[in-house]
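User: Is it possible to get a 3D structure for a protein together with its bound compound? The compound here is zinc ion. I've pasted both below.
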Amino acid sequence: MIPVFDGHNDTLLLHAQDPDRDFFARHDDGHVDLVRAREGGLVGGFFAVWTPSPDLPPAYAGLGDDRGLPFPPGGAVDPARARAHADRCLAQLLAWHEDPAGRFRLVRTALELEEAIRDGVMAGIAHFEGAEAIGPDLAALDVYHAAGLRSLGPVWSRPNLFGFGVPFVFPSGPDLGPGLTPHGRALVRRCNELGIMLDLSHITERGFWDVAELSTHPLVATHSNAHAICPSPRNLTDEQLAAVAASDGVVGLNFNTGFLDPEGRRDTTLPLDVMVRHVDHLVDRLGVSRVALGSDFDGATMPDGVKDASQLQNLMAALAATGYDDDSLRAIGHGNWLRVLKLTWGE
Ligand code: ZN
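Assistant: Yes, that's possible. Here is the predicted structure of the complex:
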């Protein structure tokens, strides 16, 4: 079994919506819990804190399965609501970290991540998908960093104080709005100083280039695919991939059918071959040491072949069948995340 460290899940949203849900028990719904993670070789991942948009139709504001549909981006989220939601989600991670059986660790350093993987304890990184919980003075960023925040996407697919995210239109290039605001530029600088990884997966193309120019860290898109194969604005053009490669960054393959299928269909029968084609393209453009996984579990529509965390080895087997050797699979599975986190966080 190839250990998989995953660049993106929305599992905290399931727990925010159902506080009684037990992460350590097996469930039939959703995609990630500890039992299914162990079955599929999922050793940890980035746990996203994402505040639902209040003005989306009910079908979109609930569980993630409908977030892959094309829809105009919601308006800005009320910062007080985002702050309350972020506090709740971080408290959840801290509670799992205190699990008496020691089955989960909130990791803050690359060494802690390596140790968790070695010890067979599930490792979680606290990630903000959109920085709405942080105010213009950035004071909350320091507080959240002290609480364990180590990764942040300035925007989700909507505007906020810091920048603009791409709406889910299809087909389209990612140049769908302005770049970073002055507050966004200050946020990038402060994340660099604190050693918080910046995630470019939802940002407009202009925002991407603003961060590329400003940031001193490798460029990272935790859960995005190849635009050359699936022309969704959530995917990266070859020009963007070249910039990620030049910065020694990483791109995590998103399993959402709508970001994989060349026609943008949310069809769960999508064959694993299409995922392999995206990995091939990313490896071709980035090199095998800069391609990783970023499933979008619990936030998107999965292909039947990797319908939840327990099925992850199906993807590794599909990659092995097309010629990826063990070293490459271990790099894509988890090693490349470790490499970039060491560069970004320090040892
Ligand atoms: Zn996302």
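The radius of gyration is 18 Å. The first strand starts at residue 4 and ends at 9.
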